[in-house]
Design a protein that fits this description.
302 residues, alpha/beta, Spore Coat Polysaccharide Biosynthesis Protein SpsA, Chain A, 2 domains, nine-stranded mixed beta sheet, globular
């Protein structure tokens, strides 16, 4: 159902931990938006590092709408910290971002808000992630696989067709309708990973939609090593095992197989055959980490 959003007030939350000078670039990008944010809330873990960066980069505190909230490392949680940040805003919409997601244009916020204007059943919209300069061909394909061109609305009716991707949503850059957020109880309090998909599942189950806004773009990618993939996917597998209500009925391994086949084909087609061993090693790291995390999460849940 179409609606005209009267209140387009929007704040931004950025979770930071030992940020670098990209943080100043992100703030510049946000302040130059066609729809500027009200407040930019920095939920920062580790005060000393950010204090040093502020002294080195005078851009960070040059904006009067930047608000810093420090927390101890022991108190950080992927879900709980985001939920805590929501207490500091009374805006109609809240955008969550990570410290390495750089706006790719001045219409990022405008494009994230657009779906809510067009459909009153949208709970959250999320942005397209583009590879950063210097990204490897493997990572370029990964970005395209998960964040293709073309918008998509996902609802409960799509579960049979899309499976786990029905709940796919990324807090690297995502915009939440705060009325619906409050109604659904916000982010989960405790989780090592996947807080965005857990919320998306809750929203879909309640009859709301998740919207992939492909015209809202950020630069965000990583050239992870096999060891880094292994460590990252331990948390991924663990979070899935700890939340069978979300991930128990649908498997994410099918999507993994599609990515593997597609990426190998892409590398061969574009002359990057020599990267296939590296890609296979990354896949092995992902799978072994995922399985270890699944086992650990299953034991903890017993």
């Amino acid at each position: 159902m179409t609606r005209a959003v009267a209140d387009k007030s929007v704040d931004v939350v950025i979770l930071t931990y030992k940020p670098d000078r990209r943080l100043g670039d992100i703030l510049e990008g946000l302040e130059g938006q066609s729809i500027p944010p009200g407040k930019i809330l920095l939920m920062n873990t580790g005060r000393e590092h950010l204090d040093r960066l502020i002294k080195e980069d005078d851009r960070i505190m040059s904006y009067d709408n930047v608000e810093i909230h420090h927390l101890d490392k022991a108190d950080f949680d992927h879900g709980g910290t985001r939920k805590k940040a929501a207490e500091y805003t009374d805006a109609a919409f809240l955008i969550y971002m990570t410290q390495d997601a750089l706006p790719a244009g001045s219409d990022l916020i405008e494009e994230l808000l657009r779906p809510f204007d067009e459909d009153d059943g949208i709970a959250v919209s999320y942005a397209r992630q583009l590879p950063v300069r210097g990204a490897s061909p493997i990572e370029i394909y990964n970005r395209e696989f998960n964040y293709p061109d073309g918008d998509m609305k996902k609802t409960k009716a799509d579960e049979g067709r899309l499976g786990i991707k029905t709940y796919f949503c990324s807090d690297v850059c995502a915009c939440y309708d705060m009325k619906i957020y409050a109604k659904l109880g916000g982010h989960i309090e405790k989780t090592v990973f996947n807080e965005d998909m857990i919320y998306a599942h809750k929203a879909v189950s309640a009859g709301y939609g998740i919207y992939y806004a492909s015209k809202a773009k950020v630069y965000h990618s990583h050239n992870y090593s096999p060891v880094q993939q292994y460590r990252r996917n331990i948390d991924l597998g663990r979070s899935q095992a700890e939340h069978p209500e979300v991930f128990g009925a649908v498997s994410s391994e099918g999507e993994g197989k599609k990515l593997v086949k597609g990426c190998i084909s892409y590398l061969l087609k574009n002359g990057y055959w020599y990267l296939i061993p590296e890609f296979v090693a990354q896949c092995a790291g992902r799978y072994l980490g995922y399985r270890k995390g699944k086992r650990a999460g299953s034991v903890q849940g017993e």
